[in-house]
Request: fold
Amino acid sequence: MTTDAPLLLSSSGSADSPSKQQAPARTSIASLGCLCTTDSFSSSLYEDCDTASVNLADEREAEPGHCREESDVSRVAERFQSADSHFFHRLSVECSQKERQQKVSWGGAMEMQHSPSSLETGMVSSSHEKPNRSQRVRHKSSQFEDPFSPEHEPRLIYINDPNRTNDRYEFTGNEIRTSKYTLITFLPKNLFIQFHRLAYVYFLVIAALNQLPPLAVFGRTASLFPLLFVLFVTAIKDGYEDWRRHRSDRNENNREALVLQHGDFRLKKWKSICAGEVVKIHANETMPCDMVLLGTSDPNGIAYIQTMNLDGESNLKTRYARQETTSMICDAVSYSGLIKCEQPNRNIYEFTATMELGSQRVPLGQSNIVLRGCQLKNTEWIIGVVVYAGQETKAMLNSTISPSKSSNLESYMNRETLWLSAFLLITCSVVATGMGVWLFKNSKNLDALPYYRRKYFTFGRENRKDFKFYGIALEIFFSFLSSVIIFQIMIPISLYITMELVRVGQSYFMIGDTRMYDSNSGSRFQCRSLNINEDLGQIRYIFSDKTGTLTQNKMEFQQASIYGKNYGSSLQVASDFSHEISTTESLRQSGKKPKINVDSALMALLNQPLIGEERIAAHDFFLTLAACNTVIPVSTESSHDMVNGVDEIGTIDYQGESPDEQALVTAAAAYGYTLVERTTGHIVIDVLGNRLRLDVLGLHEFDSVRKRMSVVVRFPDNNVKVLVKGADTSMLSILKVEIGDGLYDSLHAKIREATENHLSGYSSEGLRTLVIGSKNLTDAEFIEWQERYEEASTSMHERSAKLRQAAGLVECNLTLLGATGIEDKLQDGVPEAIESLRQAGIKVWVLTGDKQETAISIGLSCRLLTQSMRSIIINGSSEFECRRLLANAKAEFGIKSADSRRDSQRSEDLYNGDISKLRSSNGHMSENAVQNFELTGVIAGEKSEYCEKVTFDDTELALIIDGSSLVYILEKDLESELFDLATSCKVVICCRVAPLQKAGIVDLIKSRTSDMTLAIGDGANDVSMIQMADVGVGICGQEGRQAVMASDFAMGQFRFLKRLLLVHGHWNYQRIAYMILYNFYRNAVFVLMLFWYILYTAYSATLALTDWSSVFYSLIYTSVPTVVVGILDKDLSHNTLLYYPRLYEAGLRNEAYNLTLFWITMLDTLWQSLVLFYVPFFTYNISTMDIWSMGSLWTISVVIIVNIHLAMDIRRWVLITHLAVWGSIAATFLCMVLIDSIPIFPNYGTIYNMAASTTYWLSVCLIIVLGLLPRFLGKVIYQTFWPSDIQIAREAELLKKLSQQLGGSRPESDVS
Reply:
């Protein structure tokens, strides 16, 4: 057999090729460990198959007997470098150095499963969507070093010889440390971290200035109190958290494990274990370090581990010990050998190493290593040798945190803070300038004025002592600094603390919302980030994965195409011709035995003798389903037939990492092809009651380049066959071509045509498709493949690329057996949720790896697409074609650029609707929605000259684009075209996209607009998208917890997103927005009141308020009501918000917080400050009241007015709200009484005299009325003549409650 040269690397195989009869001895080595259950199938296989950005179906055969040549797409895309969310892969050795150094772009960035692998020349880097277990997204320009590059030598581990292992390399010990501080470094390091906040630095400077004698405005202790309080509380929190880390580290390091010492396994503390030692682990114990398996209690060397502590997945993984090391287990003295492995790295799903046992060289892979933190399950014991310990283990290298995100409102708050800073400088400059003018005018009289005389004229020690007068220039400078100290709370330090407390309280109620609890999975809502709660109320774009996010990711085998005939279509309607067979499957969320409907016609075919091409094709079809996978059958219960003396089939628990594979294996068992045993060297399948043993000679797992999986097996009759399954785009291009037999060629052409028609039908029904094929290998083909496979398996460099090239030797000229259709049902409530989100003004985009037809069908089912929409389909295979399609689509529908649409969009966003627009939808999709949608669809570029000239201004558009087009479009010169087109559409569906392409689509919107984005997904392939978006939501589904661990929020079902955004998002945004404005107002009114007073004290920075009153104002007197209202206040009930989704648009229009509101608030603040100062000023202008009495009046007045100001805006009064608002006023009065009761204070006894005066209380009442009257009148006028949607809905809600109360019925309770 010959192949195209570009697919092959040079071979150094032995000249003596073994014969077919000698093969078993050789393949016993090559086949060991080939059944590794890596992450290749940890997720949905069929979506993975459809993920690639390049359609390999475009490849053409050069001639019969040859594999397909590279496609035009591949040649054009060669320049792209593949990248996953952890690191970027190097191109293959055939690529030039220049090509290797090219940076990755969003368009060509495709995630690869096998990290350090290379790509064959001519193959575009493509994505493996679900299997990638990336924990964190790195920047696009970062690269991960190839551990086997020439500059990095492999690590040498001498088995059972730790002294020799560590003597040369000095590997780290197994002691771990996750704490940040020690007793010595805690104080300086913690303060250094805290002062990374610029606000803390600002207040530190203020406190330091106040310690200088010329600038001691406040008491030196009082000025330090706010900053010290914040620093102390934060330090206590950080110290407690680090103490818990120390305690955890101590407990972890002092755990014990059995280590081989002096020929016997003895207990040894984890922290003392080092590389090279042999360790024994028993069932349910945790791995102390990363170990290569040497043996297990299972005769076949199988071990089951649980990786929940590592990647969050609860399903069991299988690991294997090499059969070459089993002799070590029998004789403990003979533990010896050398392991050459890669240097420590973060990739937990890749391990490249070889083991040298004497003259024998054994390959090691990811299936032969168990990682620290994993637990041993369903296995009595295992023995392994330590290769990575302590901080070098993959678990510790992956112990990083999610990137920090800041909220949109916080950025606006920083903008307003700059305005307040400018105002602060202006007021301080006014005071300093006034001071200079006053000093200049009174320069001749300064010697006669207190504080400016050159000498003291008094009795005692101070007589004739010099005053500290520094001259006019320095006095002006000191006056400026003193004003900064006095007006410091204009930039509120308390706002940072308040926001943190409010966010914690909001998160508490979101977590406790029972309406977002998923009873099926037992998962409740999670808040994993406390910085962006308010962003949930301003989401404009939602980017959603499909499989496991919109769908259940619980696969059910529905239809099959075998030998050109369709089976299973009648299963949708129950009939007497179908029956059920019960098997068991390891379902992650349910232990129930699924019922598989079986097609009676197909069962009749399988019960016939194995004669004829159709019967043989059906036989090979189900053999492939049962054999070509990584599912492990485990007997869960004993079921023995006492009469017949045989074991019953049906008590098998299939352990698999992919719901797709479990569905296929379960379906094969339902049709009589039951996988009953799998070892490293063979599998046993029960075929209609007869046991068939197949020797596994090699297994090529799924990867994103090939998009298929194959297994080479030997049958009992010594025939060797390769069984293959994969995506249609990769399988149809490697099928057998014409052989010259007209009848044969005609028959198989018809079979292929029928199968392709069935695939299209399956996709249109929303089924996930897979193509099945096989091929009998000749002796020459097998020997050539075996040599190349063994060479690749033991290679220490570019192993993955060489394995792919070895697979190319047998994965060609396949015989088409058929195709499968698996249903992944929609989750409950998805259509209703999407409909409500769209009514709320949110655009929902679906980014999936599935076929276009499947994505469109799901889009119709979930009401994302409607019959009235016009579809734009972009399927380009070159940059020129994509450019033409985009231009034609924009011209066809009259789409303008984003800049020209901005004005009209702004006017639309500012529109305030009436209550007639606040309605819910109960629309229903008709049965022929797919056909109607297809009829209205328009393929871009194919303009019909007969189509009517219609206006598309009011037409809703839907854009459908595939990943291969995105390869070319996501370049800088085409991004703007895609952006203009996509943002003009109501719906965008991206098919066959890679994980980094998902992140690229999110970045396209995020970088070009100020709109908030949300990404939601359930698998590792969604991590990059989740972390790229402003808000990331993870689904606790079937795909593990990678998405959850990388997300900001997590939930069990997609439908909860509706409540999260429309209810909690709306509440959080309204609360935080009001709280920020209120804090600005609260502090500004206090500062301005002091400013007016200073103008009447010769600009001398003299205060009428006590030091403690100034400090307590923002920390105690007014802080509690702000926190309580920020957590508990509600403008509308959850029922109203869900019933009228368009109320959510208030957040999109920035109604609760914008620059206009800020300046209106500042004007109101200016008026209230004038009232606060001048009412007492004119009232007591001719009295003998001292400044402390005046300060007492101002203190109680400003606290009362800001609290009543808050009370005017509270929409939901509960007991705790009353206590907070009115209790703060009472607490202020009580604190003033206590402060005025201290004899050493200059204001001693002031409150007692003032409280007895009627004028005092009348002044307070007058201040409140005059200060709040303009605000009250403004609210009445605005809400009467220009009511907002929220105000109208609130009035309707109050009227409804009133009618219910008058009618005697109780209104429905509203729970946070």
Notes: The chain is about 40% helix and 15% strand. Residues 1056-1095 form the longest helix (40 residues).
